[in-house]
Amino acid sequence: MKRFLILLTLVAGATCLFAQPKKSRVVTPSTPAKKQTVEKKADRAALMFPTSAEMPEDVVWRRDIYRQLNLLNDKNAPLYYPVEPHGKDQNLFTYLFRLFITGRIPAYQYKLDGNESFEEKDKADVKELLERYSIYYEEKDGKVNVPESDIPSPEVTRYYIKESNYFDQRSATYKTRVTALCPVLMRGADYFGTEATPYPLFWINYDDVATYLSRLPVMASNLNNVTNMTADDYFTTNRYEGKIYKTNNMQGRVLANYCKTDSAMTAEQLRIEEELAAFETGIWHQEIKDDSEDVAVNATVEKKTSKKAKKSETTDTKAEATETAADGEKASEGTDSKAESKETKASKKSKESSSRRSKSSSAASTKRPKSSGVSSAPRASARRQRR
What we know:
Blueprint: H1 2-18, H2 30-48, E1 61-70, H3 92-101, E2 108-109, H4 126-132, E3 138-140, E4 143-145, E5 158-168, E6 173-187, E7 197-200, E8 202-205, H5 206-213, E9 217-218, E10 229-230, H6 231-236, E11 242-247, H7 255-258, H8 262-281, H9 291-367, H10 377-386
Antiparallel strand pairs: 1-5, 1-11, 2-8, 3-4, 5-6, 6-7, 6-8, 9-10
């Protein structure tokens, strides 16, 4: 009995020692390891080519705008030229298309409502998209390859972009950031004046491609041919120029739904641009005045100042006139007094001369001797005879 119990204990101990393998021998599946390596590569690329920080989701104010970029305009030309790859130089669509077909970035389907969705179910399939738009491709060992001559880069002359204008309360700054890109294929134009039909290809999340765009150099000026700017710098600094065709609203309407004419469309686009500018300028509770009001205020101020100047000029002229009149009166009075003084002097002189004459005549009459009865005529004749 004792031997049997000893054997049972030995068997139980052996089963406990050799029943399960050690945990260190457990081999992990291969797929998680691949995911880890991919994530490490992505993180390393982000460290080597850093981009701007993502937009925070808890902002206090944000407005999303959809714009249409015409790549034939001068400001948007850096995204279109060179049309065909020339050495290391390539345009934006060629670069994005290669990243998409090689699986380095995901692309998402363009829906009929024009809204973007970056969910897993809305991812675009490479083969399905190439066949839909009749783009020639080759498949070898499960990989899709499109020759450079078959990439429809010359036909992509437009882009739809989504930008978010928001106020970041953490840094107290107003920012405008591109959040999505959509290349548009323009086909159907001919020599008879038929306009090209737009075919939006796919949406790309800007955060997924920002690291790669920081490696794509672009030429930003015709005067300076040095490629001192990247595609990420171009979008971050908002150097593009595009017309608004849609805004995020509760009704989900685009501008073409309620703007029936070109003039109405232009007026609505201008109104939205002015609203954005007004929010940016009035974000610190500054008073916002229209230019017309400023002009009216300036005109009224100028009128008041001109009236005051005219009044002062009239008062000055009146004072000068009174002074001149007073001076004239004084001068006339002076001349009259001078003339009167001269007249009084002359009258005095004449009176004195007359009085002297009268005195001399009276004295002569007193000195003459009395006549002895001889007439005065013989004296004159005697004097004449003596001569």
